[in-house]
Structures are given as C-alpha cells and as structure tokens.
Amino acid sequence: MFERRELDAILRIYGRMVARGEWRDYAIDGLTDRAVFSVYRRSSEHPLYRIEKTPDNARKQGAWAILAPGGMILKRGQELSSVLRYFDRKRFSVVG
Question: What predicted TM-score, i.e. pTM, was given to this entire model?
Fold first, then answer.
C-alpha cells in the first residue's frame, strides 16, 4: 500500500485539481502486486488517470507510474515527486 507521506503528496495534487474543477472523485486499491490511486471526473466513468506504485519495478523502470485510461504510461520514475510533476504542466491550468 501507500505510505503516509506518499498518500499526502498524491492527495495534495488531488486537492489542487479538485479546486480547479478537473477531478471530482478518487479510489484507492491495494492489489497483491501494486497500489493504485485512480482519479475520476465523474464516479460513473473510467478513471482519467491511475497513479500506480509497483514495488517489483523499483529497480527496473521505477516503482511509480501515471497511466492514461487505455493503459498507456504517461510518466514513470523512481521518485513520486518527479512523477507527480506531470500534473504541473500548463495543459492543466485553467484559463479564466
């Protein structure tokens, strides 16, 4: 599962995106081989993003990954903070 500091970092991003109106719901799954934080625009839809922690990949591509709805890997890395920077890009900023 996620450690407390990891979940805090993910929830900070989640809160920021909720405030922008981008995201509305989330789910946390603890599977046998990985932990998954799924983000939804509406709870009845497929997740917009999945933030996955897969410890078995830590020495290979990195334990952390952000996946798109179709399963495409958008960002992967060793450190959660660098992977979460994916959400800091301009395309997530609201034009007002």
Answer: 0.86
